[in-house]
Amino acid sequence: MPGACARGPAAAAGDAWLRLARLALVLLGWVSSSSLPSSATSSASSGSLGAVSAQPPLPSQCPPPCECSEAARTVKCVNRNLSEVPADLPAYVRTLFLTGNQLGALPAGAFARRPPLAELAALNLSGSRLQEVRARAFEHLPSLRQLDLSHNPLAYLSPAAFAGITNASASSPPGPLAELFLNHIVPPDDDERHANRSFEGMVAAALRAGGPALRGLRRLELASNALVYLPQDVLAQLPSLRHLDLRNNSLVSLTYLSFRNLTHLESLHLEDNALKALHNGTLAEWQGLPQVKVFLDNNPWVCDCHMGDMVAWLKETEVVQGKARLTCAFPEKMRNRVLLELNSSDLDCDPILPPSLQTSYVFLGIVLALIGAIFLLVLYLNRKGIKKWMHNIRDACRDHMEGYHYRYEINADPRLTNLSSNSDV
User: Fold this and answer.
1) Which UniProt key words apply to this protein (predicted)?
2) CA-based angle 128:134:138, to the nearest 5?
3) CB atoms within 10 A of CB 267
4) For a Cys staple, 187 with which of 48, 87, 153, 281, CB 3.0–4.6 Å?
């Protein structure tokens, strides 16, 4: 007991300090608890707003018959027998493949969507049996840079088919379209829609009327279309053109085609056509283009007196690529002669027909001779009937002439005339 009493004042002081420490801790805890909800609430609200603002948009759905890759921004609807463009294409698409389908026709606004396909840059419609591309079919595609319509039997290509890709005013900047592929789009000969119009004229009208939409075009491919000629101003509205592919057609001459305004042209492919010679006007225009490279392989060059200027130009120019491979096709005595090895004395205009033309004339003579022989045989087999028919015609003519002669004698003799009138009375 006395020890407990002796320790009383020290223990009391320690208890007092302990109580003060506990009270300070309680006060600190209350302050922190009162400030924590407000800060937590503000941080939570800011976090929720950030989450809302940073949340990516929901990915667009992929059309059921197609394959989509949002990472590559590509949609493939290949060999699906589609009869129309899918309506629910995702807005993120940059490259769209619609090849190997049964589209038939592209109406106006075929790719107009809400939201628009603002990022679509490459559109491939090759081999989809397209027969008609109507006015403003590619409207509302402001980023379209590459369009492929190859391998479609286009019986109708509207002059305004490419309108609507960009603004139509003359002062508008060039449109985004840089590459246009129209290879093998010639319709079959038995198509009635194609029978009343020139295929060359139809394509030329679409290229002329493209306006600002085609003013920025850099590559144009028109291969394998059986083109016999191209109108004079078909390239007038394509000042930015750098690559022109006209190979595997039936072009006979380039006399009416002007290249003067194609100052940026870099490559011109004219292989596998029906060119026989090039005239001075065309050669001068090519020589005036600073960067152009021309390809002329596999044309049936006629090495006669009209070829002299072209041969002289070939020997001096570097415009033609592979010019050492160019050889003569006609006349027969010049066949397979290299153009660069010809001299002016080799080029004459003999009236010798090409072998193919000679063969045609021989065949025509044989056919006419056969027809004549058949005609004579028919006359011989019907000689009796023909002889009887001739006798009948002779007798009928004789009777007719005797009647005329009798009336003439009556009219010439007055006595016979009176007699004839009395007998009538």
Assistant:
1) Leucine-rich repeat, Membrane, Repeat, Signal, Transmembrane, Transmembrane helix
2) 75
3) 15
4) 153
- Please write down the HEC assignment for all residues of 50-98: HHHHHCCCCCCCCCCCCEEECCCCEEECCCCCCCCCCCCCCCCCCEEEC
For the record, the structure tokens of 123 come out as 């559109």
Grouped pLDDT means (10 residues each) for the chain, 425 residues: 45 56 51 40 39 42 92 96 94 96 95 92 97 94 96 95 74 84 88 69 92 92 94 90 97 88 96 95 93 96 93 96 95 94 86 63 88 90 86 84 76 62 50
What pLDDT score does 379 carry? 85
Six-digit token string for 356: 């193919």
CB-based contacts of 378: which residues, under 8 Å, 6+ apart? none
Residue 268 main-chain phi, psi, to 5 deg:
-135, 115
| The two three-digit tokens of residue 75, written as one number | 């949609």
CB proximity list for 327: less than 8 A, separation 6 or greater:
301, 335, 336, 337, 338, 339
Look at the block and give the residue holding tokens 């006669």.
304
Phi, psi of 267 (to 5 degrees): -140, 135
* Tokens 């130009």, residue located: 313
* CA 111 – CA 286 distance, rounded (Å): 39
Q: How many residues does the chain have?
A: 425
Distance in angstroms (rounded) separating the CA atoms of residues 192 and 46: 69
β 267-269/156-157 pair status: unpaired
Name the token pair of 388. Answer: 């009887």
76 and 66 in contact (C-beta within 8 Å)?
yes
Q: What is the pLDDT of residue 384?
A: 85
In 210-309, the DSSP E strands lie at 219-221, 243-245, 267-269, 293-295, 301-302
Question: Among 258, 270, 242, which Cα is nearest to 204's?
Answer: 258
How far does Cα 328 stand from its chain's mean position?
32
End-to-end CA distance of the chain: 199
User: Rounded distance, CA 342 to CA 352, Å?
Assistant: 19
pTM over 0.85: no
